[in-house]
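Weekly puzzle thread! Below is a chain. First person to post its structure in token form gets bragging rights.
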Amino acid sequence: MCGTPSYLAPEIIAGNGHGRAVDWWSFGILFFEMLAGYPPFIDDNPSYLFSKIREPETIAYPEFFTLESIDLIKKLLVVDPTRRYGMLRRGVLDIKLHPFFSSIDWAVISERKLPAPIKPRISSPTDNPSEFPDDKSGGVGDLIEDIPVPQEIQQIFDSF
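Winning reply:
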């Protein structure tokens, strides 16, 4: 077994074999963690941690979670991988059409037309944007897209 323990799907813990449904489980864990700042299952003892993972209905959701976010997490963190969102008849469409994402224009994202909310000013491909102060102005000066990217690096990201 390998992976971050709190992200492991129940079928991996049980050793029942697994498929791509584990990725939707991990997405549910990541989604929770991005909203809360911590994962839904925490314990220093791996046995207790794995017990919690096998019973996702016991998750304590922070008060600030919206009903939509809780609903989506519950549909992603389903123990039976055949009933987990992402694995149903409509596949990823169930997730994309979920009310939590109602404000998302997936076509704009797919066409890469959504502007970046923060464009750090950098002067060379080796600059680390995290070293710069936050610039929420939208960017003036040298932006990352103005710097040529070597073809061998660019082709790594062509499928994104």
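Puzzle host: Confirmed. Bonus trivia for everyone else. The mean pLDDT is 84.
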